[in-house]
Write a structure and sequence with these properties.
Blueprint lengths: L19 H45 L3 E3 L18 H4 L4 E8 L19 E7 L6 E6 L4 E4 L3 E4 L2 H19 L5 E6 L1 H9 L3 E5 L3 E3 L2 E3 L2 E5 L1 H9 L8 H19 L2 H4 L2 H11 L3 E4 L4 H10 L8 E5 L2 E7 L2 E6 L1 H12 L9
């Protein structure tokens, strides 16, 4: 018996006759169609994800634009002659970064003239060190009463550098201590911590000392801080016998807990929380113009595996307090600072033992 094929068709072949491959090709057609559908579905999903990611990045960029930007010449001393700050993804992935973070209790939202912080003193001074391998974050606090050499101004408290010469003189003073360039600068008012704490759903930390301030009692042990409480927690120093030493320790405790919360899966998998965090802090933030979204996004991606345990905090070494004339000051431990400067130069800050 012979089957006559129609034009354009493939003739069916009875079992055991003809080319065995023909029936196999015809049987495979539904499978091939299913594979094509799966491929195009995957392509569509990737496309949708890309559009969504682009929308999130666009929204983040829009929020971050609320931060005030300062030209390099207004941030770095002798900006024309110093190396260009690290600001491209290629450089950011191969070099350590040192970011000077200055905290202020007085400035308020961006829109206040940046010149208004000249004549004031920086309340909080931190150097955030990000090693070249991007496997940790090291945050060094510098007590504001450290008695140091301020270039062109002689010996004074380190926080006076801001009042004498603004950010450039502060950068120059810090660079003289750590013996490496500062790559970027961020100035933030403490008010920004309030909104950021709320944006990530609160910050939980282990408070070593019970104390009361601003009408709030902070119990010893594990506590969860919301916005206004967080602001009081990082500001207070009069409630402690250790004064600014305890305040700096509490700021480090809070910063580490806050970074842990930001790096938690709960935050990183929530575009809303990420966007809210940027929106909350940007109005209170001033950065050099090299620290833009094109720098932060690849830097963040290179550090995506970090978690709270990878954040190290410490205070620059001191010998305790004393008096210089009528001023109460903190005496730096210059021998240990020299050891620390070597670690900064060798990209080994993470090995420092306080």
């Amino acid at each position: 018996m012979t089957f006559q094929p129609h034009d354009g068709d493939t003739a069916p072949v009875p079992a055991g006759q003809g080319e065995p491959g023909r029936r196999q090709r015809r049987d495979d057609r539904p499978k091939n169609r299913g594979a094509r559908i799966a491929v195009w579905t995957l392509v569509a999903i990737v496309g949708i994800a890309a559009v969504a990611a682009g929308a999130v990045l666009g929204r983040l960029a829009s929020g971050y634009e609320q931060a005030e930007r300062l030209p390099q010449t207004e941030v770095f001393p002798e900006a024309e002659s110093r190396p260009d700050p690290i600001e491209t993804p290629e450089e950011a992935s191969n070099e350590p970064l040192n970011i000077l973070v200055l905290g202020s209790d007085t400035r308020g939202e961006v829109g206040d003239n940046m010149e208004s912080i000249r004549g004031q003193r920086s309340d909080t001074i931190m150097v955030v060190n990000i090693p070249a391998d991007r496997e940790s974050i090291n945050i060094m606090s510098i007590m504001r009463d450290n008695w140091v050499e301020i270039p062109g101004r002689g010996m004074n408290k380190i926080n006076a550098a801001m009042s004498f010469g603004g950010i450039p003189l502060t950068v120059q003073t810090i660079e003289g201590i750590i013996d490496v360039p500062i790559d970027h600068v961020a100035v933030i008012d403490f008010e920004g911590f309030k909104g950021l704490t709320d944006a990530v759903g609160g910050v939980t930390l282990n408070n070593p000392n019970s104390f009361s301030a601003g009408g709030t009692t902070f119990a010893q042990g594990e506590i969860t801080l919301q916005g206004e409480e967080a602001l009081t927690f990082v500001r207070e120093r009069y409630a402690f016998a250790g004064g600014d030493y305890t305040r700096v320790a509490n700021q480090q405790l809070f910063m580490k807990a806050l970074i842990s919360q930001v790096l938690s899966r709960d935050t990183l998998t929530s575009p809303t929380k990420i966007i809210d965090s940027v929106d909350a802090i940007s109005p209170y933030l001033t950065v050099d113009d090299g620290l833009g979204v094109t720098t932060l996004v690849p830097l963040g991606m290179s550090m995506s595996s970090l978690r709270g345990g990878d954040v190290n905090t410490f205070t620059s070494p001191t010998l305790g307090t004393g008096m210089v004339g009528s001023q109460s000051v903190v005496h730096p431990d210059w021998d240990r600072l020299a050891e620390l400067a070597v670690l900064f130069r060798e990209d080994a800050v993470g090995t420092w033992v306080p």
